[in-house]
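User: Need the bound-state model for nicotinamide-adenine-dinucleotide:
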Amino acid sequence: MTQVVDPSAARSGAADAAGPGAPGRDAAAAAAVDHWIAGRRVPGTSGRTGPVFDPATGRVAREVHFAAEADVDAAVAAAKAAFPGWRATSLSKRTEVMFRTRNLVEAHRHELAAHLTAEHGKVPSDALGEIARGLENLEFATGVAHLLKGGFSEQVSGGIDVYQIRQPLGVVAGITPFNFPAMVPMWMFATAIACGNAFVLKPSEKDPSASLYLAELLKEAGVPDGVFNVVQGDKVAVDRILEHPDIAAVSFVGSTPIARYIYETGTRHGKRVQALGGAKNHMLVLPDADVNMAADAAVSAGYGSSGERCMAIATIVAVGASADPLIAAIRERLPKIKVGPGTDPAAEMGPLVTKQHRDKVASYLDSAAAQGATVVADGREHPLYEGSDGFFLGVSLIDRVTPDMDCYRDEIFGPVLTVTRAETYADAVQLINDNPYGNGTAIFTRDGGAARQFQFDVNVGMVGINIPVPVPVAYYSFGGWKASLFGDLHMYGPEGIQFYTRAKVVTARWPDPGTSKVDLGFPRTR
Ligand code: NAD
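Assistant: Bound-state model below.
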């Protein structure tokens, strides 16, 4: 069974490091979530804060400081100062530090998970799953010595060799979403730091405490002060990052409108940018699919983490005769899903992140009905929707959804599965390819030829064959197509190494008496 940890009793939390009795800070201020600059917590200079909710109770659990431009500047200055030393640190030493980081995160996963449950609302089993996938990125980063090997060509011309090396960029920044407060930062900083960069993280203001907990683990693992920094906050911090002359590259994960803004603004300021956006992931079910397998997958991937995953299945495309039996099989499973707070060891699905988001998700049930869809299950009927101050919503299923409906067009990002019926495989693929998003997709079938054709046809970056959430393992790279990614390099894995380094090609020869002469012609190899 999953271990449930009280974050207030965790190794260190948002509230505890400064200590309630810390000089010059009253109890309320001590409960605020700080920035992490040059290896220590600092409250920053803006005086602005935002609320951090406990989504299971609806209460404001703490405040988070919002950085002023000067705070971002301080973090970048700390990173810039730390970069030369870190870059010069041997690969063996950097590998050792990444190993220690990996082991510390693994050893303290329950405390870290407790922060995720307390601020995001995801249940402990889900929080631990997120951390496990983040650990894969730290494990990948321990292979940096191998991954940074360049190429060498001997004797490209008489006595001349050419070799390529990859060097870190300098100070790089990451801006992350609320839905994976531990894993997505690890997607970025594991690779960035291992490659020799110094990193500035701007986490989501909705669940900021995990970032500070990770900062402490990195410090304990031996990451030098200044190599990893955290600035909490909102658009003020983001905009300063995007224009800061000392930041070489920005990684972003979040919604599509902000991803586009980050890409356009960051590149306009001369930065390398990878900006991963939102999603609308389709699950295509052919009539020959195993109905029980497809229903289990749809329910797990549609409602896991309350549908707040960028790789969640949002919409099922049921081809031909597959629709009715599939919907019946899904309906059968819905009443068994246990919705509840993360403190309940039996809970499988927690609340949504904020009341505002919960209410927006619920509003699609009304618009779907008004626009002609059939609401098969309405999450508002769950007792916790009315009977709790937490941001709960039960699971919903909407059938006969067409592409013009709001519930199809928008990324709902909640526990709402929609079903669109298609007559043929070709119609189904056309629907997926016409959708502006292209993050993940899945096909359910027993026909290998159909699956292979689907992987060939579909304009989506990550494809599952009878796998509903095809998040690539850390030694591949993660990235969608179309409006799900701006930039050309995917995140983590081999493309992450490319993103966080740049190539330098050296052409070299050594003095060989009598072989040099003046030659004003363009250098030739023959
Ligand atoms: P969001 O876009 O609202 O926020 C992401 C980050 O951008 C946060 O750090 C936030 O503070 C910042 N931000 C928000 N508004 C801003 C503005 N106007 N100017 C500058 N910065 C701003 O996203 P979210 O709600 O935190 O996360 C959910 C979204 O992220 C969903 O759309 C989901 O699909 C997407 N997501 C995508 C992936 C992926 O890999 N493609 C992974 C996880 C989440």
